[in-house]
Design brief:
This protein has one domain: Cytochrome p450 (Orthogonal Bundle). The strands form three sheets. A seven-stranded mixed beta sheet has the order 1-2-3-4-10-7-5. It is built from 16 helices and twelve strands. With 396 residues, it is α+β, with helices and mostly antiparallel strands. Helix 7 (147-157) packs across helix 8 (164-176), helix 8 (164-176) runs antiparallel to helix 9 and helix 9 (179-202) packs across helix 11. It has helices at 16-20, 22-30, 52-59, 92-102, 108-128, 140-145, 147-157, 164-176, 179-202, 208-215, 220-233, 236-250, 252-260, 265-276, 308-311, 348-365; strands spanning 2-3, 9-12, 35-40, 43-49, 64-66, 138-139, 285-287, 291-293, 296-298, 303-306, 370-371, 393-395.
Length: 396
């Protein structure tokens, strides 16, 4: 790690050590300063907030807001343009209006009610796992963690079963995060979302889209945007489930505790989100005026990114934070794995429930589940913003 000319630590996202172990890199910066500078290809240097208290403050500060353009890093056909501005790019009354309309469909109670519809989706994927084995090894990322969130989203928004294989392909492209496959998927996702809205208007069902259409107040373009944005944001459980399984299999004592007491699963999911949640960094925000953060002056217009993973390992907020402990008692105000403030993840309750269902069923069905490689040989994707696996080879 280096310093800039003013002595502020700099996190270089091109450094292989940062990509390999962002937790250590962020910790070094965090213990020196609540703010560091972050550099990388394709964007100007930005402020990165490293400590828990300051991260929560920034994410709830109206003086630091989202950008004005879509965060999709690609050009898309003209007909997609009306559907690209998501709630991530909204703030203030506009954001509050739309969130108020859609949030009743994403409460913890609704997610719990949805559990019986998630369970058969998980069971079907687990039934197929042995068929995907090659020389006794199955890629759990490809055959459970990746398809499940797309299946759940399709069930949630009312996409018919016949269309789901295509949406699984969209989900796979989204998880890849970049490249031609991602670019090609976005127009198809938008078109698929438009079709889903039109179908549910003609044939209402027991799903989120039908409920929103019945309630009214949400324009068609907003509904279409909501559907495809769910496909993007709804992939979070892919990496959470994969990271969680890999963490448990790499920590036999924690796995044993969970097997001995399945009642620990809800708390274990919270601990896994804190300890190995996939979102290393929040989406960049921008100072709308000069703002002081942790004693450092951030000038108007400068980009600021919250280091969620760093905050979740801050010893000022969590005792022995680098230790994975599935019996850890809940703390208040808790981790920031789903961000905080007005842009707290809308789908957090659903992500929690499907992760709970997936882990519970997986550990019950395969009591001898084990990594097929040594923990240090599990390969991760070189993604500075997301802690994610390239594959998760296991033996059943």
């Amino acid at each position: 790690m280096t310093d800039d000319t003013s002595g502020v630590p700099v996190i270089d996202l091109t450094d292989p050590d940062v990509l390999r172990d962002p937790f250590t890199a962020h910790a070094r910066a965090r213990e020196r300063s609540p703010l560091a500078r972050m550099t990388g290809p394709g964007f100007p240097p930005m402020w990165v907030v490293t400590r828990y208290e300051e991260v929560r403050a920034v994410l709830g500060d109206s003086r630091i807001g989202p950008g004005s353009t879509s965060y999709l890093p690609l050009d898309v056909p003209e007909h997609c343009a009306p559907y690209l501005r998501t709630m991530q790019e909204m703030d203030g009354p506009e954001h509050a209006r739309l969130r108020r309309l859609v949030s009743p469909a994403f409460t913890a109670r609704r997610a719990a009610e949805f559990r019986p519809r998630i369970e058969p989706l998980v069971d079907a994927l687990l039934d197929d796992l042995p068929d995907h084995a090659e020389n006794g090894v199955v890629d759990l990322l490809a055959h459970l963690a990746r398809p499940l969130p797309t299946d759940v989203i399709c069930e949630l928004v009312g996409v018919p079963a016949a269309d789901r294989p295509r949406w699984r392909e969209y989900g796979t492209a989204v998880v890849s995060g970049h490249g031609a496959r991602f670019a090609e998927a976005v127009p198809a996702i938008v078109d698929g979302a438009r079709t889903a809205v039109e179908r549910r208007r003609a044939e209402p069902g027991d799903d989120v889209l039908s409920a929103l259409l019945r309630a009214g107040g949400v324009e068609d373009a907003e509904l279409v945007t909501l559907v495809w944005h769910l496909v993007l944001a709804g992939q979070t459980p892919t990496n959470l489930i994969a990271n969680g399984v890999e963490a448990l299999l790499s920590h036999p004592d924690q796995l044993a505790a969970l097997r001995d007491d399945p009642g620990l699963v809800p708390g274990a999911v919270e601990e896994l989100i804190r300890w190995c949640g996939p979102q290393l960094l929040a989406i960049p925000r921008y100072a709308r005026e000069d703002v002081e953060i942790g004693g450092v002056l951030v000038r108007e217009g400068e980009p600021v990114v919250a280091a969620l993973a760093s905050a979740n390992r801050d010893p000022r907020a969590f005792a022995d934070p680098d230790r994975l402990d599935v019996t850890r008692a809940p703390s208040a105000p808790g981790h920031v794995g789903f961000a905080h403030g007005p842009h707290f993840c809308l789908g957090a309750p659903l992500a929690r429930v499907q992760t709970e269902v997936a882990l519970t069923a997986l550990l019950r069905r395969f009591p001898d589940l084990a990594l097929a490689v040594a923990p240090q040989d599990v390969v991760r994707a070189p993604d500075p913003g997301t802690w994610r696996l390239a594959a998760l080879p296991v033996t059943l």
